[in-house]
Amino acid sequence: MFDFLEGYDLLGAFWVTLQLTLLSALFSLVWGTVLAGMRVGPVPLMRGFATAYVNIVRNTPLTVIIVFTALGLADVYGVTLGAGDFDSQYFRLAVFGLSAYTAAFVCEALRSGINTVPLGQAEAARAIGLSFTQVLTLIVLPQAFRSVVGPLANVLIALTKNTTVAAAIGVAEAALLMKEMIENEAQLVLIAAVFAFGFVVLTMPTGLLLGWVGKRVAVKR
Amino acid sequence: MSSVLYDTPGPKARVRNIAYTVVFLALLIAGLWWAIAQLAEKGQLEWALWEPFTRLPAWETYLLPGLANTLKAAALSMVIALPLGALFGIARLSDHAWIRVPAGAVVEFFRAIPVLILMLFAFQFYAMNTGISSEQRPLYAVVTGLVLYNASVLAEIVRAGILSLPTGQTEASKAIGLRKGQMMTLVLLPQAVTAMLPAIVSQLVVIVKDTALGGVMFGFTELLNSRQTLAANYANVIPSFLVVAVIFVLLNFLLTSCASWLERRVRRGKKSSGPLAPTEPGGGLQTAGAVPARGGNSETVSGP
């Protein structure tokens, strides 16, 4: 029944999807945290930059960003991100685009987390003479992170699904393989079911696991 | 200039802030300079490449029809997905397990798979099983994919909206003898949809952004796709990208502003309804320029 899978590297494609997800998650978490720090910080220029970045990136379609990394960054600017061949160059560009896009959502999630930290925490921190960086990194962010595990899990799930957009620039991940398979094989519904199942396997445990983690680490108030 | 996170800057801190500003500004200018210098080197700054956008033909033949298709697909998807979503949202709250469980399974399933997978499936499905002409097929595929995905997201929004209503609403409607259907259609649903209107408008942003997928993957002639045709004619990759991105950002910014305006209205309406209404949640750190955390479904963050 599943002989239509012969000759296609299904696991390989999902492995690329997983790599795209994990690498972009890592980079967007770092960049998103930096953006959140700038957005609540004392320097007006950085605050303005982070606000503008979030508002512009959030309102641009990911497809536009990803296609731009290929046609703009790669073709016009000649950005290779240190890659030797085309395949890894486009993979890295896709990770770059996905990270740049997802960071805006990470920043927003973190900022809403910062808003849940009680006022007294920051006031106490300032009262004992901590600087802004110390208040943020020692007192506020640790508590904020613990309260936004749930929202960040939603961002991660959205990111997992968004990696399919990398198919637009020919990164050999799951959606591109699905496109190729349904054009060449007759069992459309079965193929779609296999890929849908693959994504359900990737996204559902993330939601359940991180939901559980979120409940465990949340600061009891 | 102060916030709860930092003190009003004294002389030392003021110097430090200025130093940060200067360094950051230098970095920004250096980045921008590099970007523009590279463009100039590649000849992308030639006025001939930008000039088409100042005249009507480029807009009439490419951008405006593309924008119209984007809006058409988005509007169709929303109009079909909203009632479907409401139906599934209500079904998930049903008293009967044989309605509640399948509805929940369908919603969770479609929320878990990427919208692109749904679009690709719909495109091929229509090609194999229906007589929809090949010009119309991309639109059908995009709308089908968007409807399947967004109906399930909207179902969750509606469900969250109904669950967020005070239990007094249900109790009062039962006390005056309404049947379950009446209670839902006359009392709960209207309030839930009003409360969730900001989230629903935000979802429209996700839909508009997702239409661009159909353009690259199977030639739906929306805005991003017409950019490609336009750039092929005028050889202006970067200018056309910038113009299209600006159109998308403006359109979505309009929708986002509309959503936050609605949100403020909904909030204000709640506040003025007397002392029984719950007080504003708060007491947390309100950072400088913070917008209130968006109510409802966090799924609105998703989508390309």
From TrEMBL, chain A:
For this protein, the parts annotated as crossing the membrane are: 12-35, 56-77, 89-107, 127-145, 151-176, 188-213
One GO BP on record is: amino acid transport
In terms of Pfam families, this protein maps to:
BPD_transp_1
Q: In the UniProt record, which is one GO cellular component term?
A: ATP-binding cassette (ABC) transporter complex
Q: Which Gene3D superfamilies match?
A: MetI-like
- Location(s) in or outside the cell: Cell membrane
- Decide whether keyword Membrane is in the record: yes
Q: Which residues form the ABC transmembrane type-1 domain?
A: 14-210
| GO molecular function list | transmembrane transporter activity
* Xref: InterPro entries: AA_ABC_transptr_permease_3TM, ArtM/GltK/GlnP/TcyL/YhdX-like, MetI-like, MetI-like_sf
Give UniProt keywords alphabetically: Amino-acid transport, Cell membrane, Membrane, Transmembrane, Transmembrane helix, Transport
| Topology with respect to the bilayer | Multi-pass membrane protein
Protein's UniProt keywords contain Zinc: no
- PROSITE patterns, from UniProt? ABC_TM1
User: Which protein family is named in the record?
Assistant: Belongs to the binding-protein-dependent transport system permease family. HisMQ subfamily.
Name of this protein: ABC transporter permease subunit
The lineage, from the top, is: Bacteria, Bacillati, Actinomycetota, Actinomycetes, Kitasatosporales
UniProtKB/TrEMBL annotation, chain B:
> Pfam families given for it?
BPD_transp_1 (PF00528)
Give this protein's Gene Ontology molecular function annotations: transmembrane transporter activity
Superkingdom, natural source:
Bacteria
Q: Where is the ABC transmembrane type-1 domain?
A: 67-255
Matches recorded under InterPro entries:
AA_ABC_transptr_permease_3TM (IPR010065), ArtM/GltK/GlnP/TcyL/YhdX-like (IPR043429), MetI-like (IPR000515), MetI-like_sf (IPR035906)
Where do transmembrane segments lie in this chain?
18-36, 73-93, 105-127, 139-165, 186-208, 237-262
Question: Its topology with respect to the membrane?
Answer: Multi-pass membrane protein
What is any one of the record's Gene Ontology cellular component terms?
ATP-binding cassette (ABC) transporter complex
| Biological-process GO terms, alphabetical | amino acid transport
Gene3D superfamilies registered for this protein in UniProt: MetI-like
Region described as Disordered: spans on this chain: 270-304
What keyword terms does UniProt attach to this protein? Cell membrane, Membrane, Transmembrane, Transmembrane helix, Transport
Q: Where in the cell is it found?
A: Cell membrane
Q: Which family does the similarity line name?
A: Belongs to the binding-protein-dependent transport system permease family.
Name assigned to this protein: ABC transporter permease subunit
